[in-house]
Amino acid sequence: MRKVTAGYFHSVDGVVQSPNLWQFDAFDDELGEMLSAVEQATDTVLMGRVGYEEWAGYWPTATMDGDFAAFINSVPKFVASRTLAAADLGWSNATLIAGDLESFVRDLKSGDGGDIAVMGGISLARQLLFAGLLDSLTLITHPVVAGTGKRMFEPSDPMTRLELHDSRRTSKGNVVSTYGLRT
Fold first, then answer.
1. With DSSP H G I counted as helix, E B as strand and the rest as coil, what are the percentages for the chain, rounded to 5?
2. Would you tell me which of 88, 99, 107, 128 could form a disulfide with 84, CB atoms 3.0–4.6 Å apart?
3. 4-181 — its CATH code?
């Protein structure tokens, strides 16, 4: 069975939105190697509407981060949205998820292939976690207090027990923690 994964850059105070505004000089070679490994294991991406719209406006013509641009532009992307139509998806290899999201993800997981990564979708990752469909959540905590921005979890989220699968510290003080649902 395929795994559904999600990973987010994360500030000490829990912000995951717009990490480009606060991760500064904390990105290091270890994180680059880890992200390359994620790309190699992933052959399908799930995105929410907001993340899709932001990324589709940037990555197709990105001049920086060429390795990631090549990956994200070519990988099949499935977009969860209640407001977009299939005709709104102009980014290469992007398909609108028709029908129930959780059923769609269950079907993807049961098929053949590599990992399925949630990218550019904070609420999408939360929904899949609480539905028991997210196999791993990696939080890459940068040594910074961001102050403002969307956080991974909201006060209205249900209490959910996780178990730590892996944790490590990088040379620039990032803490990479990977969690799964406690069974």
1. 35, 25, 40
2. 88
3. 3.40.430.10
